[in-house]
Write a structure and sequence with these properties.
This protein is α/β, with parallel strands linked by helices. It is built from eleven helices and 14 strands.
Length: 351
């Protein structure tokens, strides 16, 4: 460990990892005791910024001063028995936080602890502007103080239940599931509670202007790692590899968006970096998390493999005999089967 942050738990300790249920049954449902050498939380990439409109406190208006922006929250777990020296960094998708990997809506084990159980140190992040990473409220306070919305972002997106259902390919329309879906639709209200606003819109540069840089700062701190990105975080990997090619040991891109086409320099930086582009089922659904994304990432895979030393693989899970998976495959009922597929690829491709 390179970082010097406050930690909880020092020497190997047995932790009972809890989740949405209660009592022994809930603990058993996520795999039982988890033996850790260490666990802790810290922030990276925080930058000081002057806020002329920091808001109003219980004691009255606050004078202009310094606030911290662009920080990224990180939660790490180090297994007592490591079978791999390479940690895994888990990066959530749009409108979500690191909770995507912590547990499932119906209270089963998530990838964050499962990968630890399989011997990897795991770092789960909330990218800047999401979850526990906070955002810069200056523009909101300025709009209030000046009576003008000119400095506000065009919108701060919030994903509705009606949008999420087809968007994440649980089914063709809200409340209607695909007959073979692996997503626990009965626990959809719990999944909906995981949603957070796209508050990175309040940061200069938005997600693309902050998250890759924060991830680079994390790798500077912890050293080379396998980076798993999901959905709207997909382009973060392209930028991150361009920024820190020597520190990215591999990329697992789960149904990555293609909102930003990688540059030739970023593609060239993938030389020697194993890449797994992974997609679930029902890609023919008329939503942009399906076939259009698949085709866009397929084009990226082809570009990577045209570079000498390119090592990119594109996989549809149904083609591998794993069927019914949604856009949220890390929370589907067979999420650990998908995790084992990823771990098998890592064992085969990453050195």
């Amino acid at each position: 460990m390179r970082h010097m942050y406050g930690k909880i738990a020092a020497a190997a300790c047995a932790l009972m990892v809890g989740c949405g249920g209660a009592g022994a049954a809930a603990a058993a449902s996520i795999g039982g005791p988890l033996n850790l050498a260490d666990e802790g939380m810290f922030f990276v990439n925080g930058k000081p910024a002057i806020s002329k409109h920091p808001g109003v406190s219980p004691a009255g208006p606050v004078r202009p001063g310094t606030v911290t922006v662009n920080q990224m929250y990180v939660h790490y777990r180090i297994p007592a028995s490591r079978t791999s020296a390479i940690p895994i960094v888990l990066v959530h998708g749009g409108g979500l936080s690191g909770m995507s990997y912590e547990t499932t809506p119906d209270g089963r084990e998530g990838w964050a602890t499962y990968f630890v159980r399989k011997g990897h140190a795991v770092y789960v992040v909330d990218t800047p502007g999401r979850g526990r990473s906070g955002f810069n409220a200056t523009a909101i306070n300025q709009a209030r103080a000046e009576g003008s919305a000119a400095g506000l972002p065009a919108s701060v997106l919030m994903v509705t239940a009606e949008l999420a259902w087809p968007l994440f390919r649980f089914g063709p329309s809200h409340g209607t599931a695909y007959p073979d879906t692996q997503f626990p639709v009965e626990a959809f209200p719990s999944f909906a509670s995981q949603g957070v606003p796209f508050a990175e819109a309040m940061l200069e540069g938005g997600g693309m202007g902050t998250a890759p840089q924060a991830l680079a700062a994390l790798l500077d701190d912890i050293g080379p790692a396998i980076v798993v990105v999901h959905s709207l975080a997909g382009p973060f990997a392209d930028t991150l590899v361009g920024l820190r090619p020597a520190l990215v040991k591999a990329v697992v891109n789960i149904e990555g968006a293609q909102s930003v086409v990688p540059t030739d320099a970023q593609i060239a930086a993938y030389k020697g970096v194993p890449v797994l582009e992974l997609f679930g089922d029902h890609l023919d659904a008329p939503v942009f998390t399906g076939q259009p994304r698949y085709e866009a990432r397929k084009a990226v895979v082809e570009r990577i493999n045209r570079v000498e030393g390119g090592k990119a693989t594109l996989v549809r899970l149904p083609d591998a005999g794993i069927k019914g998976n949604s856009h949220m495959m890390m929370q589907d009922k067979n999420n650990l089967q998908v995790a084992d597929f990823i771990l098998g690829w890592i064992a085969d491709k990453v050195r």
